[in-house]
Amino acid sequence: MLGLVAGTLLGVVLGALSGLAPGVHANTLASALLAAGAGLGALLGEDGLAAAMFAALITHSFLDNIPSTFLGVPDPDTALAVLPSHALCLEGRGEEAVRCSAIGSALSMGFAVPLSLACVLVLPPLQPALDWGIGIVLVGVAGYLVLSSDSPWWAFGIFTVSGAVGLFALRYSFLAWHTLGGEAIFLPLLSGLFGLPVLLSASHGPVPDQTFSGISIPSGVLARHSLLGTLAGLLVGWLPGLSNATANGILDALVGYDRDRSGFIVATSAANTANAFIGLAAFFALGRTRNGVMAAMAGLELPSMPVLMAAGLAAAIGGFLLTVRLARSARHLARVDGRRLNLAVAVLLVLLSLILSGPFGLLVLSLSTLVGSVPPLVNVRRVHAMGAIMLPVMAWAFGFAGF
Predict the structure, then answer these.
(1) Can you tell me the distance from the alpha carbon of 118 to that of 200, in angstroms, rounded to the nearest whole number?
(2) pLDDT over 90 for what percent of the chain?
(3) For residues 76 and 138, which has the higher predicted lDDT (pLDDT)?
(4) Cβ(223)–Cβ(263) under 8 Å?
(5) What integer is the mean pLDDT of 66-81?
């Protein structure tokens, strides 16, 4: 028991650090913990090491919206959510955006834990049919997003071209340096589509005063968006080949990041946290690893699923408190020169792309930045650039070679 408690506390600390560090994913921390497994295993036991990995994943899911909000830096879990959260920051409402994210993640646990247990009991016999239907679901979502656009042909073109860039990046990702793990290529891919173009076109004035006057979303709407996000997290957490970035695209079809920015942040954050719990359930029920944390845990002697979920719930409390506390520090950004801040973050993204994925990463960053600069020029929403994630998943689902 002492090892489990110590492991959970260690996971909260490490998950907070990874959530606040641009470009670092919880999967990276899991790999580092596994590499240090001999020493940590002796101190914590394998149960405690597994608790540390899962607690880090949950804590990371709370804090990873902070760099997205205040710096405009996306990662695989916040690619689309960066647009409304950073926009709220530029209006002086960054703390509200972060608090909405924390509330969405916290509320999702009330839905995700019982749904996880239900999935373990009900879904395994239906798994072959569910696996077959992944591609059909994504085709339907992509079709809806394109056809509902004001410029369907431009939307289709951006979806297709961004999808081609995504296929290229993932198919030849072995050319990249995997400094911090195999997901390194997502940083230049998503930063080019959703990060750099926004930073380069942003206002060059000072960062506005950050004020917080409360959450403007009614409690009933909060609960509804959290449930929608949890269901999206269930979909991408249980079915193979999907990710939180895919959930972002699905939720945009239901909520819309430009129609209801705060609601979209709540929903995507709920999906992010719910995905972690559902992924744990899929690991125990099917033996499938949905993310790098589960893959790292696969070689350990694990405690029971309820014990790990309890560690995750404890980590969620810590993650929520840390997120709310750090959100209050947003006022220190006031009057920072926006031009210098945007330039510094843009340079950081380029350097991270080079360090984490090498020259191939810079090539992907350049291509994706070109594609990501097109939507505002043709009055099309950036959600269609999610083809970079959705098209490769479709290719995998329909059995195309190499995916």
Answers:
(1) 46
(2) 18
(3) 138
(4) no
(5) 67
Residue 158: what residue type?
I
**What is the per-residue burial (b if ≥16 Cβ within 10 Å, else e) of 85-96?**
bbbbbbebbbbb
Nearest-angstrom CA–CA distance, 377 and 369: 13
The whole-angstrom separation of Cα 276 and Cα 238 is 10
Structural contact between residues 193 and 371, judged by C-beta atoms closer than 8 angstroms: yes
Give me the pLDDT at residue 167, please.
Answer: 92
Residue owning tokens 């913990």: 33
Q: Identify which of 385, 397, 394, 398 has the alpha carbon closest to the alpha carbon of residue 146.
A: 385
DSSP state of 314: H
**385: closest CA among 269, 245, 275, 239?**
245
Hey, is 203 helix, strand or coil? coil
Q: Which residue has the higher pLDDT, 309 or 384?
A: 309
Domain ranges of the chain: 2-397
Distance between CA 353 and CA 365 in Å, rounded? 7
Residue 334 has pLDDT above 80, yes or no: no
Cβ atoms < 10 Å from Cβ of 224: 16
Residues 227, 269: Cα–Cα separation, whole Å: 11
The 3-state DSSP class for residue 337 equals strand
Report the DSSP beta bridge partners of residue 276: none
Distance CA 23, CA 188 (A): 9
293-303 tens-digit pLDDT: 777 777 777 88
pLDDT in tens, 21-30: 765 666 666 6
State which amino acid sits at residue 351: L
Tokens linked to 22? 């641009």
Average pLDDT of the chain to the nearest whole number? 81
The three-class DSSP label of residue 264 is: helix
57 touches 184 (CB < 8 A): no
Rg (C-alpha) for the chain, rounded Å, is 20
Q: Max alpha carbon distance in the chain (Å)? A: 59
| pTM for this entry | 0.76
**What is the three-class DSSP state of 206?**
strand
DSSP 88-156: HHHTT-HHHHHHHHHHHHHHHHHHHHHHHHHHHHHSGGGHHHHHHTHHHHHHHHHHHHHHTSSSHHHHH
CA distance 55 to 311: 6
pLDDT digits (tens, 9 = 90+) for 91-102: 888 888 889 999
